[in-house]
């Protein structure tokens, strides 16, 4: 298979399994609280544990992918995700839930780094923002599907059935990834130097911070949004359906943001959308206009995804993409590990999940200054690379 858009479709579906699995805890958080007798702080930790392996595995994950190849690495990652889900599906001990979550997260880390590198291989310099927007769109799509499907499964059959469903989807991903083929030019350049120069490394670090902080803010919506609405008397299913509006609308706003970025002024689009999302997150906890606020977040919140994800591709050569994406995702996973855990602690102390949404507003608001920093670094690095 050599059609790059068909390849992108495969990567989209396989990456969707990560979002579906990640959201499984938050989607049935009230059910888990009842089943295991835990609180919001414990739920926040369990959510964040999915990203914990990323702090230590993302960087070597890039090297692992470069050493063993795309398919073996992605298949191994999907097997880890499946195994973790099976552990969570078959135990009623909270400690083993954390073991399963960590195992799944380790697979998710390896898969995320490798899939991003594979997508960049096919689209670097060729509508990269649009392609990356479609690629990252698999995340809101996977979350939205989980918010609609998993609460119903959990209510009908219990938490074990929820995690069995995530494991089944990961196993399907193994079949799909067998269809992937790398582009010829990447195969021929794979033997080049994988060493990042200092400016490229700094630029990738800043890009990873931007992506991590933006996603922490967005994650607060679907991680603690259902609990916020449950505090207001909503049922688990109704809360999940309402929050899923953000994800479904993002399915349209994310590729639109990438399309606009590829056709000019990506900086303006990203900064304006980030400020708007921060304001809407803060408003969500203080307003009764829940549906209107969620609709606006969904329509606007997807715009920065493609432009942000394309930042690293601007400073990485084919031979440095694997290690560069490892650095990028190390920062992302560090943010996503700490964000939900801190939010859960703050929510427990304040007695309300609203505090988690306020934290999300602050992390999104931190993105525009970092984007300005990246834009100062990237042109300098490009000029030196040409000289």
Characteristic terms for this protein:
mainly alpha, 19 helices, single chain, Growth Hormone, Chain: A
Q: Remind me, CATH topology?
A: Growth Hormone, Chain: A
Mean pLDDT: 85
Continuous helix count: 19
Per CATH, the class reads Mainly Alpha
Classified in CATH, the superfamily is MFS general substrate transporter like domains
How many β-strands, per DSSP? 0
State the helicity in percent bands: over 70%
Broad shape = globular
The helix/strand series, from N terminus to C terminus, equals: HHHHHHHHHHHHHHHHHHH
Plain-language structure description:
It is a single chain. The protein is mainly alpha-helical and 387 residues long. It has a single domain, classed as MFS general substrate transporter like domains (Growth Hormone, Chain: A, Up-down Bundle), CATH 1.20.1250. It has helices spanning 4-27, 29-36, 40-49, 52-68, 70-89, 94-123, 128-136, 138-157, 159-177, 184-189, 198-231, 236-262, 266-284, 290-301, 305-309, 311-315, 321-350, 354-365, 367-386. Helix 1 packs antiparallel against helix 6 (94-123), helix 6 packs antiparallel against helix 17 (321-350) and helix 13 (266-284) packs antiparallel against helix 14 (290-301). The longest helix has 34 residues, at 198-231.
């Amino acid at each position: 298979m050599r059609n790059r858009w068909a390849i992108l479709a495969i990567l989209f579906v396989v990456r969707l399994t990560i979002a579906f699995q990640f959201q499984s805890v938050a989607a049935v958080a009230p059910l888990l609280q009842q089943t295991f007798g835990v609180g919001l702080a414990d739920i926040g930790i369990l959510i964040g544990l999915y990203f914990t392996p990323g702090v230590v595995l993302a960087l070597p994950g890039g090297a692992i992918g470069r050493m063993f190849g795309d398919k073996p690495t992605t298949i191994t990652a999907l097997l880890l995700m499946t195994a973790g889900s099976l552990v969570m599906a078959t135990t009623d001990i909270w400690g083993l839930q954390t073991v399963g979550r960590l195992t799944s997260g380790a697979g998710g880390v390896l898969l995320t780094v490798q899939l991003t590198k594979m997508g960049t291989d096919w689209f670097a310099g060729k509508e990269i923002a649009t392609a990356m927007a479609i690629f990252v769109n698999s995340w809101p799509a996977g979350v939205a599907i989980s918010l609609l499907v998993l609460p119903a499964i959990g209510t009908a059959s219990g938490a074990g059935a929820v995690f069995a469903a995530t494991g089944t989807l990961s196993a399907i991903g193994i079949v799909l990834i067998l269809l992937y083929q790398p582009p010829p030019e990447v195969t021929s350049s794979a033997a080049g130097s994988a060493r990042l120069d200092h400016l490229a490394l700094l630029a990738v670090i800043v890009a990873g911070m931007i992506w991590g902080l933006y996603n922490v803010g967005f994650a607060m919506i679907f991680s603690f949004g259902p609990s916020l609405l449950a505090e207001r008397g909503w049922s688990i299913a109704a809360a999940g359906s309402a929050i899923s509006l953000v994800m479904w609308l993002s399915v349209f706003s994310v590729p639109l943001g990438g399309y606009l970025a590829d056709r000019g002024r990506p900086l303006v689009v990203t900064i304006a959308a980030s400020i708007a999302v921060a304001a809407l997150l803060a408003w969500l906890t203080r307003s009764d206009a829940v549906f209107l606020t969620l609709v606006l977040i969904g329509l606007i919140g997807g715009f920065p995804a493609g432009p942000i994800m394309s930042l690293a591709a601007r400073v990485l050569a084919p031979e440095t993409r694997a290690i560069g994406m490892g650095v990028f995702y190390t920062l992302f996973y560090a943010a996503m590990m700490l964000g939900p855990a801190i939010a859960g602690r703050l929510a427990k102390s304040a007695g309300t999940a609203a505090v988690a949404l306020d934290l999300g507003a602050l992390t999104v608001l931190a993105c525009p200054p970092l984007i300005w920093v990246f834009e100062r670094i990237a042109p300098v690095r490009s000029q030196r690379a040409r000289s």
